[in-house]
Amino acid sequence: MDKLLSLFENADPFKTWWPAIAALVFGLVIIVRTLMSGQRCPNDNQIRDQIVVVTGANSGIGLEIAKALAARGGRIVLACRNMAAAERAARVIKRELECQRLHPTHSIAASDAEYFVEARYLDLRSFESVHRFARRITGEFERIDVLINNAGIIFGPLGARTIDGYELHLQVNYLSHFLLTQLLLPHLQRSPSGGRVVNVTAHAHAAAKIDFDDPLNVGTWAVNFHARDAFAHSKLAVLLATRWLARQMKGTPLTVNCCTPGLVRGTGHLRSSPLMSAISVKLMTLPWRWLFMKNPFEGAQCAIRLATDPKLKNVSGEYFNDCEIAQSSLNGRDIALAKKLYMQTIKELEKVTKLIIEKDIESETLALEMAPQPADAEAENYKVQQQAGPKRPKEGKAKAKQQQLKQQKA
Fold first, then answer.
1. Which fold has domain 51-352?
2. From start to end residue, where is composition biased (Low complexity) (predicted)?
């Protein structure tokens, strides 16, 4: 051992090979890490007082998006299921921005009181929860400037169904965000800046399996996807719906685009992965994940650009990767398939819910809806409802409630 140490101490870097090899390896690692980290958002535009809704913003990519947009002056709504984590995230964002403001070299000039970062309850596993959230947000704000549909799941339980009767990945990643966008469209169109919808998809859309006759995979002969395939299918659906909604909004200031964050570590998505359940696997893959995967800050850059860059004011219906327009898979560019999926989604949602916000609601009921339950209680309620089976709204329920309200007022 002493002989080896002596060899290294007395080595002449110009006469031995190992310093050159070490420098080469170090340089290659830095180059690969830089390339894999992706492009940073190419602008620092302010969005002063713009109202931004970000789903899944209590951690990971959503948290980084919310933090960056709050630093640019936006009024941020964190739409999350875990309210404890969401409220904690809101406090962290405000505290970090205040610390940055106090730093003499930083350009942020707002005070903590001027930072609007608030958490609101949203459970994408339930269409009823989506309606509650939309009613509350449209009641609080006269407009919405940016909607970022970021939340998502992967490696959910095989064959799991939501209380509305849909495959878990399909509803959380696609159907509920589709419904939320439809409900908030009128408010988005009131934005003086034109309104922007940013949907987060994934590279996995390229591997998706989809049937043109049943693009939602909800028919009688629907395939029981593996969790990996279900995730890929839901992300392709996000991309296709983005394409068609942009066509629907053509001629209006509203833009609709989607982006992929790339391969991102530290988001919690891999915690349910069978491969990552073993500690030994986690330890062995740690350096490779650091080298080849983005961190949440890097993964958030593309969505940040789509939400802020004035150069994209007239760009709609596009797929972005690393802050630039990219080419999606062949299915992702199929306009006929996009239309088929969009129309089937509309018909499917009309069977189980409404695509408009019901205004005639008792004040007491609305107050209850606006008060989120603790995360543990919500999880327990979800389990009970899931065991009870899919819930379908009864026909004429809304009319009956309106008649009852009229009788009470009379």
1. Rossmann fold (3.40.50)
2. 401-410
Q: What are phi and psi for residue 168, nearest 5 degrees? A: -60, -50
d(CA 198, CA 248): 16
Helices (H), 72-142: 83-102, 127-140
Confirm if 258 and 239 have CB atoms less than 8 A apart.
yes
Question: In this structure, what token pair is assigned to residue 174?
Answer: 């696609």
- Tokens 């390339």 belong to which residue? 35
Partners of residue 121 on adjacent β-strands: 80
CB 313 within 8 A of CB 255: yes
Parse the chain into domains and list their residue ranges. Answer: 51-352
Q: 182-186, 313-317, 352-356: which has the minimum mean pLDDT?
A: 352-356
Query: How far is residue 164's CA from residue 123's CA, in Å, rounded to a whole number?
Result: 12
Claim: this prediction has a pTM higher than 0.90: no
Phi-psi region of 279 (alpha: psi -120 to 50; beta: other; left: phi over 0): alpha
Query: d(Cα 257, Cα 240) in Å, to the nearest integer?
Result: 11
